[in-house]
Amino acid sequence: MTNRFIPSDIQYVAGVDLAYWKEGDKEYGVACIVVIDRRTMEVLEEVSYSDEIHVPYLPSYLAFRELPLILEAVKLLISKPDLYMFDGNGYLHPRNMGIATHASFYLNKPTIGVAKNYYHIDGAQYTVPENREGAYTNIVKDGKIYGQVLRTHQDVKPIYISCGNWINLETTREFVLEFVTKDSRLPITTRFADIMTHRERNKRKI
């Protein structure tokens, strides 16, 4: 997971999230991608793709449900993101293969996992970071760092970040903090994608 990209070269950053719903005995999902221009912090593009879900939910195998929708949504993009941030995990996964890592091999771009809640991994431990903006602690198992617990604002719950691929943990943290505004503990990349999933799901539900 060495950083093969110079951060200053990254201009377009995409946030990725999914939402699900059921119609009768069928399950559907929608993948949403919001591309942010790093120079202006403005939304450059939004795309979504929905379809029926055929892969059952299995803990730690979520990528097999999500990746087909994500890759179809990527095909709809006009812009070419330099970095993808996923609402989910990357290396912070029992097999170090969360959705951010799994997707990187198809996207061939650096990826980051940004999770709102902690994904418990047997044997992994961390301490709660100090109550100040930018404070973080490592999530460690058997001496190996799986990710970090990051407090993006004082007096708010921390988030859980991890490398997807082709980026190191220090740069991952810097990018996440760069896209955090005063309005939320989450970076605008995945936050805007999350908001879009609710909107698109409501449009598609019968």
TrEMBL record:
Primary localisation category: cytoplasm
Keyword ATP-binding: no
Keyword Nuclease part of the UniProt annotation: yes
Subcellular locations according to the entry: Cytoplasm
Keywords: Cytoplasm, DNA damage, DNA repair, Endonuclease, Hydrolase, Magnesium, Metal-binding, Nuclease
HAMAP family with a match to the protein in the record: Endonuclease_5
Role, per record: DNA repair enzyme involved in the repair of deaminated bases. Selectively cleaves double-stranded DNA at the second phosphodiester bond 3' to a deoxyinosine leaving behind the intact lesion on the nicked DNA.
Protein's name in the database: Endonuclease V
Gene: nfi
